[in-house]
């Protein structure tokens, strides 16, 4: 007997790649299509519309504009309801709280199950609070810390853990491009290269990494790569502030690279990746770096402590600039076995944090909500 498909309607308010959107793409890319069928609706036009179409998914754009426009809101919810009926949708999955403001109501009115993805640690933001009040059969969270804070907002609702994963075809399996990349960037082959990877936003604290680097880099053969830029129009002046900060120290050794499509190839050329967020909801950059066999230095709270075993497959610090300086200095002076830690880091990712694990957890979580 042919197995019946579970029909999913996935709603995304954003159609460009950010952290949450990358998780959505990778999850759906590895979704078992013998069990699940999915249609995607984006609330704006963007590159992800075509990307998901190339993956074989039916996609549609329903412009949502601003929530304060009641007429537009009603129109969007009505269109989602129509899709639920026409496509015989079983579960509405809203990717992020904003999408659930539409999808949760549409599913409720159509008497269908609804789930939403909470990518960030929920705080006292009005959107998190409002989304958490709209009925849902479950909320998916990437880490225990995110799950903990979401449960405080929704104590009577199922909140399920769904760790993230790395596509090992993109990270850690490429040919070694270290020498060619360093030559291209004018970095000596025998240099120690640190890297910061992520959006340039204040909460990610790249300024702390630059300050710490400026302290340890004096007279040393070392460089710092800043990989990433502003996104979604947030804090657009911050990159200029960081460049001014870099100019106060080892400016010639700090390279701002902007957004990069092939981050894995650049990570091959780094020795150590430094992460500085004080309360990271998970740490996708951390597991990507570990997949490439790099030693990650990360703050010992939030998502990173669920990934890294300190001293075994990475290094944790208290978040202070002073302790970060100490660890970076140890790396520079060869008092950390980067090769051994890198091998164990890769093994941790292979065991726990691949896209296959992430997609399987996603399917199991959905199955638990259906049954």
Automatic annotation (TrEMBL):
<dbReference type="InterPro" id="IPR028098">
    <property type="entry name" value="Glyco_trans_4-like_N"/>
</dbReference>
<protein>
    <submittedName>
        <fullName>Glycosyltransferase family 4 protein</fullName>
    </submittedName>
</protein>
<feature type="domain" description="Glycosyltransferase subfamily 4-like N-terminal">
    <location>
        <begin position="18"/>
        <end position="169"/>
    </location>
</feature>
<dbReference type="Pfam" id="PF00534">
    <property type="entry name" value="Glycos_transf_1"/>
</dbReference>
<dbReference type="Pfam" id="PF13439">
    <property type="entry name" value="Glyco_transf_4"/>
</dbReference>
<feature type="domain" description="Glycosyl transferase family 1">
    <location>
        <begin position="180"/>
        <end position="347"/>
    </location>
</feature>
<dbReference type="InterPro" id="IPR050194">
    <property type="entry name" value="Glycosyltransferase_grp1"/>
</dbReference>
<dbReference type="InterPro" id="IPR001296">
    <property type="entry name" value="Glyco_trans_1"/>
</dbReference>
